[in-house]
Every structure is written in structure tokens, then in C-alpha cells.
Amino acid sequence: MLQNFLIVSQQVLVLCCLMALGFICNKIHWLDAKAVKSITNIVLFFVTPCVIIDSFSRDVDPSLISGLIVAAVIAFFTFGFSIAFAHLCIKDKDKDIERVYRYASIFGNCGFMALPLEHAVLGDIGTFYGTAFIAIFNLIVWTYGVWLMSGDKANIKAKALFTNPGLIGAVIGILLLVTGFRFPLVISTTIGYMADLNTPLPMIVIGYYLGNLSVKKIVSNRKQYLIAFYRLLLIPGVMLVIMHFAKVDPVVMVVSTIAASAPTAANTAMFATLYDKDAELGAQLMSVTTLLSLITLPLLVALAQTL
Known about the structure:
By secondary structure, the chain is mainly α. Helices cover 80% and strands 0% of the residues. The chain has helices at 2-27, 33-56, 62-89, 95-106, 114-122, 124-150, 158-163, 165-179, 185-196, 200-211, 215-220, 223-245, 250-260, 267-274, 279-306. It is globular.
């Protein structure tokens, strides 16, 4: 296990170096909130779909298809467990604050943080299985996630559900996988270059948010550490035990563990802003869990690899 921990730690350290660039750019004022929002939009609407499409552009292999289905089922079960747990265990007198806490514990950064690590640890096959988690994430975040943060089912829009970039990328990718169709070289090369941006750009964005984290905020809000424990250790730990006893394929188990162990989703602050909740708290939870995940992620992934 120690060897696995060191290998994963090296990959996490690479991501830390990229985060450090975002942190430095924040401090020297080369990046501001407007620029980060623009980078985030590029990643969400262009880079993420390209990652999914690029990872699905491969020859059909029955074992890959079955593994992808298993990964999707695990993702559904993970979100189901997280939702049930959050509603049972996370309470706050301020219901708007409660919604942010619950959202932060349920939705992990399976695109920005998990996908680069899945690729670093397992290569293309890690990215391939990791896209299943992203597709399910987008499906749930634009339905249940919207209701949770807004408190109103009327805000769930069918158009937003079926036109979100993650789901579109997954549909195109599945069509490529099933039909065997391949884009012309110019298009496929462009998609590949865009997919390569999935590691550096998200890490720089996360580093920027870490630069906004003050010592006072880290010390004063004790409840954030309980949320971090739920998000980073308890939920992924339970899922890892279940996958182990269910004898899930080792590669799928490692990918699912990485996705389940990811820190709070980057869109927590964006959704909080959109629905007039505490966006600063959302950004703080994302930043704190990201910082702590640099320790918890290698531990859980190394444990998954050992099992």
C-alpha cells in the first residue's frame, strides 16, 4: 500500500504544482474573478465534452462497455447514498446555509479534480470510465442539484438537463463508440488538443480559489470540517467497502474511488450565486475540501489499488 500511496501522491503533487500557478496568479493579480469565470466556461462547455468524446473514440470492446455500465451504476448508487446521508445527517438552523452544506457534501469535483487524476493514475482507460461518473453527475446536478440549491422544482428545466455539455459529450461519445465512426483528422486532432487542457486549466482555477482562502475563515467555521469529513472520507469509504465486497473490477473500483473521493464541486459557488444562496460559503467549502483532499485522495486511492 505504501508504494501505491507514493505513486498517487506524486500525481497529486503534479496537480498541486498546477494549482500553485493559479494561487500565484491570484496573489499577483494576473487572474481575477471575471477571468476565472471565463476559464471555467471554456472548461465546462468545450474542454469537458472534448475529453469525453476523445476518450470514447476507440474500438468497441465488450469488456469496456460492461465496465462503463458498472461505473455508471456505481455513480448512481454513490449519489443516491450521498443524498440520503445528507438529508439525514446535515442540519442547520438557516435553511439556505443547510442547502449549501448538503450540496457541498453530495457533489464532488469529478470533472475538474477527479478526471485529471484518473488519467494520471490509469491513463486513457481511467478517463474512459471516469466519463461515466461525469455523465451521471450532470444528470443529477441539473435535476436534484437545482432543486436542492434553489428549493423550487420549477427551476428544473428540461432544456438545461438535455443541453448541458457533459451529457452532450457523453451522447456523442457513446455514438462514436457504438457506430465506430471517426471524425476527420483535423477535427479529431483539435478535440485531442482541447482534451489536453483538462488537467492544467481546472487546476489553475482551483488554485485561484485557494488564493481567496483566509486563515480566519479556515479557523472560524468548524462545521466545514465535518462536511469535509463526509465528502472526503465517509462517503467514499463506504462506497469502497461496498465495491470491494461486490468484487467490482479493480480498474473500475479505483476510478470510482477517485471520483467519489473528489473534493466539493467547483460549481457549488456558481449555483449558490445563481439561486441567491451563500456563494462565499460555497467557494470556501470547495477550497477547504480541495486542500484536505491532497491528503485524503492518495490514502483512499492507494487503499483501493491495494484491495
